[in-house]
């Protein structure tokens, strides 16, 4: 077994809880769970059967024949400084008859409370066999590039950087090229030739970068159809509940957009990664091809606005 240590630093607030569900704590299962998600995203070209088998070999499974994970994670320190203070205020006005201001960061963090502060250091210590070193390390690097740890990670919270690694501009995207991936839509959110990436301009503070992402995304989502219509918006994320009634076809569908904030050259830059997939795959009563076409149409309208407001990165 080989042990590799990664010195990391929080970039945006992390909403994490310990074993008691209340005390903020960064725990190994949180890191490994996020790594498992991004490993799947990197392997969307595999059949579901092959994906399950390979995932079990690396991360472990409940099946006794497979057993526990082949690598282990420790996090030091487990506890980081936390706060219950309100997030920095970046007001936006709601388009209602009686308009009022909301804070876009509170909007992105809806339902969360105590958080771990940005700019705090922690170490991720991974012990693993030599044959898994490259694959596991690449997953952690992808996680730190496009994902985050804890609640609301798709909304840009929980972003972190691996010190002395993410600052290398030439290595930032880790050779992430569309040509390396399948032209077919995957069955779940994963890298494919359909993926897209946008970024903000450089900002002096993390909250400026995340606020810009939130304002642009919220505006884009609100422009894909008229107010009080949900035919398209349900494809961006579900469920949609209006007056205690569900207005979406699926009980659960996570949005295919991933926000993150990066510390680059003394500044902060916000990113939105788009990872589309087939819509409602395997859901009884839904026509996969028809629903996927409607899903792509809705996302296309939203993406058009993102491209108008943000710089699109060529992959």
Note down, in words, how this protein is organized:
With 315 residues, this protein is of the alpha+beta class. It contains seven helices and 14 strands. The protein has helices at 28-42, 48-59, 104-108, 133-146, 206-223, 233-236, 288-309, and strands at 2-10, 72-76, 82-83, 91-93, 101-103, 115-116, 121-128, 160-162, 196-199, 241-242, 245-246, 257-264, 267-274, 311-313. Strands 2-7-1-8 form a four-stranded antiparallel beta sheet, with helices on one face. Strands 12-13-9-14 form a four-stranded antiparallel beta sheet. The chain is globular, with a radius of gyration of 20 Å. The relative contact order is 0.16.
Question: What does this entry show, briefly?
Answer:
This protein is α+β, with helices and mostly antiparallel strands and 315 residues long. It has 7 helices and 14 strands.
Largest sheet: 4 strands, antiparallel
Strand order of the largest sheet: 2-7-1-8
CATH topology heading of the largest domain? Alpha-Beta Plaits
Low-confidence segments, given as residue ranges, are 166-171
Fraction in beta strands: 15-25%
The helix tally amounts to 7
Separation, N- and C-terminal Cα atoms: 35 Å
Radius of gyration: 20 Å
Tally of distinct domains: 2
Q: What is the tally of beta strands?
A: 14
User: What is the C-level CATH assignment of the largest domain?
Assistant: Alpha Beta
